[in-house]
Amino acid sequence: MEASPIEEIETLIRARYPIIHVLSGEEARVTEALIEIGTRRRKSILEWSCNTGLVPAGVSLQSKQSRDAQTIDPLAALNRAVEQVEPAIFVFKDFHPFLGRNHPETVRRLKEIAVHLKNSYKTIVLVSPVLEIPTELEKEITVVNFPLPGREELAILLDEIVEEISGFENVTVDLGAEGRERLLKAALGLTLNEAENVFARIVVKHESLTGVHVHEVFAENQQIIRKSGLLEYCSPEEDFS
User: Fold this and answer.
1) Burial class, 122, CB count within 10 angstroms (exposed 0-12 / middle 13-18 / buried 19+)
2) Torsion of CA 191, 194, 200, 204, to 10 degrees
3) How far apart (Å, rounded) are the C-alpha atoms in residues 13 and 55?
4) CA 55 to CA 48: how far, in whole Å?
5) pLDDT value at position 222?
6) What HEC string does 177-218 produce?
């Protein structure tokens, strides 16, 4: 049986691959998976962005204590990863702009660090929807595609939403097996955040959640296609009758 992306990432971490590039636009979902891996492997998880610097994963965005101004600079953050003694996973979000031709010092430092990480229990994970790997780092970075959530993950999300709104007196939930399946199939192709948003919109707009509202989910997919600018979504106007 083919390994899941999470299993593949964990295997690479255990095998001491120094730098892993996870191709995904779902930072929260990838980070959650990495936190689970870190818990199993007894590694601390730190995440970096150009706004917060290097901070413990999962801290509140509003927390001023979560910011580390000294490591906002990407070179300083990479150096902190070298200085860390304990086993750790460093999650760098949207790091690809710093791997371009305008940042040769960052590319070189990352290449040097890769040698150090191979002999440690630390891993750097780059999370980005954009795959931009300079030639200098092609041999040091391993790419893992993190696909959109499948039916099982969407089903868990839908069940959580149904449980949350089931106590609301002004909201009607009428999801039989067929209606539930229609919503889940329509949601395929959405991220978890997008699916959560469209389910919440249905509840707010109609004060109900049923399989009849499947067209609302298709509309969300249509919005995504429109934003891509590559395709045009055409709603079918004919039925089998």
Assistant:
1) buried
2) -160
3) 20
4) 6
5) 65
6) HHHHHHHHHHHCCCCHHHHHHHHHHHHHHHCEEEHHHHHHHH
- Are the beta carbons of 117 and 20 closer than 8 angstroms? no
- Counting runs of H as helices and runs of E as strands, what totals does the chain give? 8, 8
User: 5-145 in CATH: which number?
Assistant: 3.40.50.300
Inter-residue contact 124 to 19 (CB < 8 Å): yes
Give the N- to C-terminal CA distance of the chain in Å, as an integer.
42
Cα 93–chain centre separation: 10
Give 199-213 pLDDT, tens digit per residue: 888 888 888 888 777
Among 160, 153, 166, smallest CA distance to 174 is for 166
pLDDT beneath 70: ranges in the chain: 1, 60-66, 221-241
Torsion sign over Cα 49, 52, 56, 57? negative
User: Quick one: tokens of 195?
Assistant: 């699916």
The confidence score (pLDDT) of residue 219 equals 74
Which helix (H) or strand (E) is 22 found in, with range? strand 19-23
pLDDT digits (tens, 9 = 90+) for 64-95: 456 778 899 999 999 999 999 999 999 999 99
